[in-house]
Amino acid sequence: MSLLFKVVEFLDDFKAEMVISILLLFLLRKIFSYFSSRPNIPGPFPWPVIGNALSLGDKPQQSMQAMAKKYGNIYLMKLGNVDVIVLNSYKVIRDALQRQGRVFSGRPQFNSFRQISQGRGIVFNSELSLGQKWTDMKRVVIKLLHRFTSKSETRGLLCRHVRTETLHLVKELCGKSKEENAAENIIQVGVANLVCAMMFGHRYEYSNKEFQDLVSLNREFGKVIGSGSQIDVMPWIKVIPKFANVVKTFDFLNNRTNNWMIARSKEHRQTYVHGVVRDVVDTYIAESIDNPKVNMTEEDVIALTTDVFGAGQDTLSTIIQWIFLYLIYFTDHQQKIKDELDRTLRGRRLPTIDDRHNFPFTEAVLHEIFRHSSFTPSTIPHSTTEPTTLGQYHIPENSIIFVNQYAANRDDGAWENADDFDPYRFLNSDGSLVHKPHERYLSFSTGIRKCPGDEISRLLLMHFMATFFSVAELEPDSDHPPELEGVYNLSMRPKQLKFTAKIRHPQVYANAFSHLEKVAVPVRENPTLNLDKTQNGESKANNKPTYKLGLESEFSDNDFEALEKVHRAVRRRKNGKMPLDDINGNEIYKLYIK
Ligand code: HEM
After folding, report:
1. 0.95 exceeded by the pTM?
2. What family is reported (predicted)?
3. 482 vs 334: CA distance, rounded Å
């Protein structure tokens, strides 16, 4: 008994010390396993719970570049609970995304990624999640988008869309006083119209309230996805009301966008005639029929439509804002562009796509804006599909990979005076463009996950710049001098964009605009958007869209009737072959007019 008493007494004396020692041991074990389970790659010290999230600040691309200077071109950081490996130089990025393309082509299994398009589509999936079907669908998207740029008729059609939207944009921008000139909004609406014309054969009036709603839906979606990635890596953040709201808004926007795409798809299927392709959605439907090996369901077509619409609309409207910002900042470059255009067009006509080779300076400015702004500073996050080695480091399977395009584009080792804006770096001494300028910088990523819209974007943007500045010019606003500052969202957009737009060749502009109104552009105008369609795509109201041929002449009041007429004509046509590449119904238009 006395022995037991002594033991208790002994333990009592040391109780506090023991508890502290056990706690310390437990903590040390935790810390040890926290660090030992991490890949052996240098990087900043990660704080518990938040990791290095706070070190990124509001200019993550610059903070990540600064970390690369300290830890090397491959480093490890932690965002919330998640380890992220950041790749920073061209060499490292090419070694990973090109030389080991397959291994680095995964996507992290973030919650938000799984929710978009209900886990379908290519953007947020990979071969790991969808198998061969992912590769097949990516091939389909590349092939279909390539058609726009490779065939002269479809390229011509694309350029007509660009011309139409650019002239409307000029009208909208020049018609506004500087106080009411909400350039960002006008540009977003213009670009959404262009993408809608390509995708769905629709264009909408700028004043169309529901269309503006759709555009703001997309804008909000961009913001929410930006914050969504914080929730993906720090799920506990949802206890903060601001972030709880983000989750709700994300669900709401996701559903609404999905319903909109379902409605467009239904509309297309109801009026679809095999062998007649009016727009991209028709090409998808045709592909799902002609290429059964890919096994593309109606849901897959809807998801691919969402992918291309979402990926194209935000990026194009953002780069156009940067083009405007750079050209009101560097007014001498804007003047050189106008001079170059005037030398060929002589202030008498608008450019055609074939004039492009006469505008090397304009094109060099576009490439330099891509490089210098690096407005897509990182790609969408990648992940590894199996364990591998990069440089001297072992990289485990399922590692999350950030590809820092900004660091590569501003790499002093790769570029002379990398921080200077200098379009001449893309020109030879005789003023011609250097060979394959777009392969020298990173904006569209590279390797298996490379953006399939790169070629079409460059073609479209060149034609946009040439058309816009051949008739209009921009002056900076003296009350708000331009600054080359961006705010980080899904992509990086200018912090502020204030200018005055003026028409500089009124006669060319007036002629072109009136010509637009006479020559019917084969797009349907202002179909009812019906954002409130139910999840399964059934319309709550029986709203049939009205189709217009061009800007003035309208089909009969019932679009379906009108299209049925066209379809009957198609069927009647003797050997009935319609060129599949004729995206957006040029042939339909000709037949109907005849
Ligand atoms: C200035 C314009 C654009 C830029 C800078 C851009 C840039 C990018 C980037 C950085 C990615 C991520 C690649 C990766 O994760 O490694 C991407 C993906 C994608 N982009 Fe673009 N993009 C542009 C326009 C477009 C357009 C116009 C379309 C469609 C018409 C498009 C369709 C896509 C698609 C479908 C993906 C997903 C590819 C995949 O996950 O494998 N993009 N884009």
Report:
1. no
2. Belongs to the cytochrome P450 family.
3. 14
Between CA 263 and CA 546 the distance in angstroms is 15
Q: Which atom in ligand 1 lies closest to the alpha carbon of residue 448?
A: 41
The SS3 call for residue 419 is coil
Residue 548 · residue 242 · CB < 8 Å: no
Residue matched to tokens 């006479």: 518
Binding-site residues for heme, in ranges, read 451
Q: What is the pLDDT of residues 563-592, one digit of tens each?
A: 444 444 544 443 444 332 222 333 333 333
Between CA 142 and CA 151, with CA 146 as vertex, the angle to 5 degrees is: 160
ipTM of this complex prediction, to 2 decimal places: 0.99
20 C-alpha to ligand 1 centroid (Å):
54
Extents of the domains making up the chain: 122-377+443-518, 565-591
**Which atom of ligand 1 is the closest one to the Cα of 446?**
16
* Ligand 1 pocket, residue 312 CB under 6 Å: yes
Q: Is 470 in the pocket of ligand 1 (CB under 6 A)?
A: no
Out of 1.10.340.30, 1.10.630.10, 3.30.428.10, 3.40.50.150, the CATH code matching 122-377+443-518 is 1.10.630.10
Q: Is 342 left (phi over 0), alpha (psi -120 to 50) or beta?
A: alpha
* Ligand 1 near 581 CB (within 6 A): no
**DSSP conformation class of 441:** S
Angle between helices 280-290 and 298-329 (to 10 degrees): 150
What are 475's strand-pairing partners?
500
Which amino acid type is present at position 219? Answer: R
| 453 CA distance to ligand 1 middle (Å) | 6
In ligand 1, the atom with minimum distance to the C-alpha of 319 is 1
